[in-house]
Automatic annotation (TrEMBL):
UniProt keyword Cell membrane, yes or no: no
UniProt-recorded Gene Ontology molecular function terms: pectinesterase activity
Places the protein is found: Secreted, Cell wall
Source superkingdom: Eukaryota
Active site annotation, chain numbering: 243
Primary gene name: LOC110776450
Protein name, per record: Pectinesterase
Pathway note: Glycan metabolism; pectin degradation; 2-dehydro-3-deoxy-D-gluconate from pectin: step 1/5
Length: 384
C-alpha cells in the first residue's frame, strides 16, 4: 500500500470554523506563541519543499509535496535487500527472530527483511543501534505474535537489580529505519491498580524514522514506549490500561485504535516533551479512542507535553476534562493539548480544562499529514 495522500480539507469543514473558546481567563501566552510559530514554520517548510508546479491547480495545497528525495543512506539500503524466513518448524532460515538478528552484520548498509511465519514467538528481542534497516513482515491473515511478560520490577537474568520500565520491553528497537508490518507485539504482565513496578512494555522504539503498519500492541501499563525519534503508525491497534502510549517521540498515528482496558481512571498518553526546545509530540489523526474505564486523552509527563487529536472518534470513556497536568499546575501554560474536528460522545469540549484548546484549521494543519514526521524523506511502502 502506498502512503495515503491527504486531500485539502473539505468545504464542509467551514461549518466547524467557529472556534470554541475554552477560556478567556487563563494565560495562554506560551501556547499562543508556540502555535503562531508552528503555523509559520510549517508554511516555510512547505515552501522549501517546493511542491510540483501543478499541485495548487490539483487542489493539493493540503497535502505533502512528494518531490523530496529519500535519505541517501535509505535509498541505498533499499537497492539490495536480503530476506530471511523465520519459521518455528525449521523450514525457514531461522527458527527464532533473535537468531536472525544475530546473523545480520553490524553496520549493515542494506535492508534485511525478516519474514516471520505465523506462530507465537516467546522471545525478548533487542535490535541494537548498529543494525539499521530491519523489517519485520508478518502474514496479514495470521500475523505472528512476539510475546513476553517482563515488568519494571522483574529481576534481570544475571540476578541482582530489577529491570526498569525501559528494560521491560518484549521488543526493543534502538536502530534506525525499522519497519514492522502485520506483527503483534505483546507484554502479558497484568497490572493491578495501585501497585508499583508493574510497567510492562510490549515495544520500545528508540530508533529514528521507524514505521509500523497493520500491527498490534497489547499490554497493560505502559504498552508502547514511543521513546524518541520520528515514527509513523498506520492502521495499528494499541491496547493498555495506564499511560499506554508514552515517551518523547515525534510521532504520527493514522487510523489507529487506542483501546483502554483501564478499570478506573487512567490516561491514554503520557507524552514527555520536557524541554521547550524539543520538537517531540504525538499527533493522532483518524484514530479511535475506545474501551473501558475513564480516561484522559493525555497527562503531562513532561512540562511541555504535546498531543493533538484530529478527526478522531472519542468514545464515552473520555473524561469531560480531557487532559491532566499530573498534579503540576505550572504545566498548564506550557503543555500543548489540542483537538480538531473530533467526533463521538467523548469529543464534547464543554467541560475541558481551560488550558486545552480546539484548534483552528491553520493551527491544526502542521499536525495532520505525514510531513509532521518529515515522512517525505523516509516513509516507504511497507511491503518493500
Ligand atoms: C512449515 O511451515 C510452512 C509455512 O507455515 C508450511 O508450509 C510447511 O508445510 C511446514 N512444514 C512442516 C514440515 O511442518
Ligand atoms: C511470565 O511468564 C512465565 C512463563 O510463561 C511464567 O512462568 C511467569 O509466572 C510469568 N510471570 C508473570 C509476572 O506473569
Ligand atoms: C482503518 O482501520 C480500519 C480498522 O480499524 C480498517 O478496516 C480500514 O481499512 C482502515 N482504513 C484505511 C483507509 O486504511
Ligand atoms: C456538551 O456538554 C454540555 C455540558 O455537559 C451539554 O450542555 C451540551 O449539550 C453538550 N453538547 C453536545 C453537542 O452534546
Amino acid at each position: 500500500m502506498a502512503p495515503r495522500k491527504h486531500h485539502i480539507l473539505p468545504l464542509l469543514s467551514l461549518f466547524f470554523l467557529s472556534r470554541i473558546s475554552w477560556s478567556d481567563a487563563t494565560p495562554q501566552k506560551d501556547y499562543d506563541k508556540w502555535l503562531t510559530w508552528n503555523v509559520h514554520n510549517h508554511h516555510l517548510r512547505r515552501l522549501a519543499a517546493k511542491p510540483p508546479p501543478n499541485a495548487a491547480a490539483a487542489g493539493l495545497s493540503g497535502s505533502t509535496p512528494t518531490t523530496k528525495a529519500l535519505d541517501v543512506r535509505l535509498e541505498k539500503a533499499e537497492v539490495n535487500k536480503e530476506r530471511f524466513i523465520i519459521n518455528q518448524n525449521g523450514t525457514g532460515d531461522y527458527k527464532t527472530i533473535s537468531e536472525a538478528i544475530d546473523n545480520i552484520p553490524i553496520h549493515n548498509t542494506k535492508r534485511f527483511i525478516l519474514q516471520i511465519m505465523p506462530g507465537v514467538y516467546r522471545e525478548k528481542i533487542h535490535i541494537p543501534k548498529i543494525k539499521p534497516f530491519i523489517s519485520f513482515i508478518g502474514d496479514p491473515d495470521n500475523p505472528p505474535t512476539i510475546t513476553g511478560n517482563d515488568t519494571a520490577s522483574s529481576m534481570s537474568q544475571g540476578g541482582g537489580a530489577a529491570l526498569s520500565t525501559f528494560q521491560s520491553a518484549t521488543v526493543a528497537v534502538d536502530a534506525d529505519y525499522f519497519i514492522a508490518s502485520n506483527i503483534i507485539f505483546e507484554n502479558t504482565a497484568p497490572h493491578e491498580v495501585g501497585t508499583v513496578g508493574e510497567q510492562a512494555v510490549a515495544l520500545r522504539i528508540s530508533g529514528n524514522k521507524a514505521s509500523f503498519y497493520e500491527s498490534s500492541f497489547y499490554g497493560s501499563q505502559d504498552t508502547l514506549y514511543d521513546h524518541k525519534g520520528l515514527h509513523y503508525f498506520r492502521n495499528c491497534f494499541i491496547q493498555g490500561s495506564v499511560d499506554f502510549i508514552f515517551g518523547y517521540g515525534r510521532s504520527f498515528y493514522e487510523n489507529c485504535t487506542l483501546n483502554s482496558i483501564a478499570k478506573k481512571v487512567a490516561s491514554v498518553t503520557a507524552q514527555k516533551r520536557n524541554e521547550k526546545s524539543m520538537s517531540s509530540g504525538f499527533s493522532f489523526k483518524d484514530c479511535k479512542v475506545t474501551g473501558s474505564g475513564t480516561v484522559y486523552l493525555g497527562r503531562a509527563w513532561g512540562d511541555y507535553s504535546r498531543v493533538v487529536y484530529s478527526f478522531s472518534f472519542l468514545d464515552k470513556l473520555v473524561l469531560p476534562l480531557g487532559w491532566n497536568n499530573w498534579g503540576k499546575s505550572n504545566r498548564n501554560s506550557k503543555v500543548y493539548y489540542g483537538e480538531y474536528k473530533c467526533s463521538g460522545p467523548g469529543s464534547n469540549v464543554t467541560g475541558r480544562v481551560t488550558w486545552a484548546r480546539a484548534l483552528t484549521d491553520v493551527e491544526a494543519e502542521p499536525f495532520i499529514g505525514t510531513y509532521y514526521v518529515e515522512g517525505d524523506s523516509w516513509l516507504l511502502s511497507p511491503s518493500t
